[in-house]
Amino acid sequence: MTDITYIHTLKDGWCYLASVLDLHSKKIVGHSFSRSMTTDLVIKAVENAYETQKPAKGLVLHSDLGSQYTSSEFMNFVQSLGMVQSFSQKGCPYDNACIESFHAILKKEEVNHVQYADYASAKLALFQFIESWYNRKRIHSSLGYKTPQMIENQIKQSA
Question: What total of structural domains would you count in the chain?
Answer without folding.
Answer: 1
